[in-house]
Amino acid sequence: MIIKNKNQRIAVLIDVQNLYHSAKNLYGARVNFKNLLLEAVSGRQLIRAIAYVAKADEPGEASFFEALEKSGIEVRIKDLQVYPDGTKKGDWDVGLAIDAVRLASNLDAIVLVTGDGDFIPLVEYLKALGKHVEVMAFGKTTSSYLRDIVDEFSDIDSKTDYYLLPPPKEGFYKKIPKIIKTTLKK
């Protein structure tokens, strides 16, 4: 059992697209980021909480970003890249990993909020530095190897009443461009 000490300095790094798609596809719901952050921190000393988002210029997007900030989460926004063939991409994997590496020397623990197996090399690197690495994600959509190598895995599926908000209003998901949904899915 991992002991969470109130003196542990932690950062919480949130892969918003990963959570968004998992919550939508599994439950037709949205993530309660305020509760997620409270659980991730668990009474420890929060140094940074950062959410990584792709800007799609959609209705409601600005209020969502504002709600994250009001919850104490710094928002990193990236514009979608549009390629000549019309495909779009807006993932933050490299940016999140670089931030984790940069912050690591000032932290005791890092909480990655993602189920994306692309972060396995980052977890291995952080653990080699002696950092305590936790992952919070939907167990049903999380890389099994990622679950196995972290010091602690918190399954959002186990407390959906706490971690999820009621389903959005009719038509909410239709506003999100289809190309973003397929490109950002891992």
Quick structural summary:
37% of the residues lie in helices and 25% in strands. It has 186 residues and is an alpha/beta fold. The radius of gyration is 16 Å and the shape is globular.
The percentage helix is 25-40%
Strand coverage percent: 25-35%
Sketch the major β-sheet: 6 strands, parallel
**Strand neighbour order, sheet with most strands:** 4-3-1-7-8-9
Write the CATH fold name. Answer: Rossmann fold
Shape: globular
Main CATH class: Alpha Beta
Structural class determined from secondary elements? alpha/beta
Please, how many helices? 8
The tally of structural domains comes to: 1
Q: What is the end-to-end distance? A: 30 Å
Radius of gyration: 16 Å
Q: Spans of 5+ residues with little confidence (pLDDT < 50)?
A: 177-186
Task: Identify the CATH architecture.
Answer: 3-Layer(aba) Sandwich
Mean pLDDT: 88
Q: What is the string of SSEs from the N terminus onward?
A: EHEHEHEEEHEHEHEHEH
CATH superfamily: 5'-nuclease
Number of strands: 10
What does this protein look like?
Helix content is 37%, strand content 25%. It has eight helices and ten strands. It has one domain (9-184): 3-Layer(aba) Sandwich (Rossmann fold), CATH 3.40.50. By secondary structure, it is α/β, with parallel strands linked by helices. Mean pLDDT is 88; it is low at 177-186. The protein has helices at residues 16-27, 33-41, 61-70, 93-103, 120-128, 144-149, 160-163, 178-184; strands spanning 9-15, 30-31, 45-55, 74-79, 81-82, 88-89, 109-113, 132-137, 152-155, 164-165. The protein is globular. The relative contact order is 0.22. Strands 4-3-1-7-8-9 form a six-stranded parallel β-sheet, sandwiched between helices.
